[in-house]
Amino acid sequence: MNRKLIALSLVIGTMATTGFAKDISTEAVTATSMETSASTIGSDQIYRLRQGDELTIDVVQQMDLGANKTFTIRPDGYVSFPMVGNIKADGMTVEEFTQSLINSLSTYIINPEVSVNVAKLGGVRVYVFGEINKPGAYTLTKSSTVIDAIGAAGSFNWDTAKKKIFLIHQNDPTKPIEINLNNILKTGDMSQNYVMREGDILYLTKNSKISFSRDIVPILTGAYMVSRIGKD
C-alpha cells in the first residue's frame, strides 16, 4: 500500500472517530433526553380541563348539589350541573371554570361559594406515525403536547426530518400544521409544542441526512479498492 492510500485510511479513521462520531452521539443524547423529559415539559404549563376529566364540585350554600358525585366533561366539552344545566369546561383552567360556574349559579344563589377539583384526569387518544421508533395509537394523560406524543412513541429515529413534522387535527385534516422540532430541541422555544386533541395525528417525515458509516464509507472503500487495483 503506498503512502497516499495509508494517508486516506488515516483520514477516514479520524473522521469516523471525531466529527462524525460526535454528531451521532449528540443525536442519541438529544433523542434520549427528549423521551425522558416529555412529561416534565408539559407539566410546566398551566393545566387546562379537557374531555374525560372527572370533577368534584361543591357548593357551600347547597352541598346536596354535588355531594358524593363526580361530573365528567363530555366529548363536546361541556359539563351538566344541577340548576345551571350545561356549562363549558374544556380548555379552561380550574379557576376559570370555577368562576364561570359561580357566575351561572349567582342567578339562583346569593354569593355562591364553589369549590372545584379534578378527581381523575381524562386521556387524549392520539396517533403517531412515520419516522418514529414505536408508531401507533397512544392515550396521553396529564399533558398531551407534541413532545409528549413523541416521547410516548419512543422518540424519533435516525431518519426523522426534525425540521419538518406535521400535526393533523382530526376536525381539519386538510390543513396540516408544520412543526420545526429541531428548533424546539435546540432553543427550548415551546411555541410549536402544540396541545394535541382527541384523534389528532402526528406524522414525522423522512430526511436526507447522510450517515458517514452507512453512506460515505462504502464509497471511500470502493475508491480505495479501485486505486489499489490500479497501482498493483
Question: Describe it for me?
Answer:
- With 232 residues, the chain is α+β, with helices and mostly antiparallel strands.
- The protein has two domains: 48-120, wza like domain (wza like fold, 2-Layer Sandwich), CATH 3.30.1950.10; 123-227, Outer membrane lipoprotein wza domain like (Outer membrane lipoprotein wza fold like).
- It is 37% helix and 23% strand.
- The strands form three sheets. It has a five-stranded mixed beta sheet with strand order 7-6-10-8-9, with helices on one face.
- A hairpin with an 8-residue loop joins β8 (160-168) and β9 (177-179).
- α1 runs parallel beside α2, α1 runs antiparallel to α6 (212-231) and α2 (19-43) crosses α4 (146-152).
- The protein is elongated, with a radius of gyration of 27 Å.
- Pfam families: Poly_export (PF02563), SLBB_2 (PF22461).
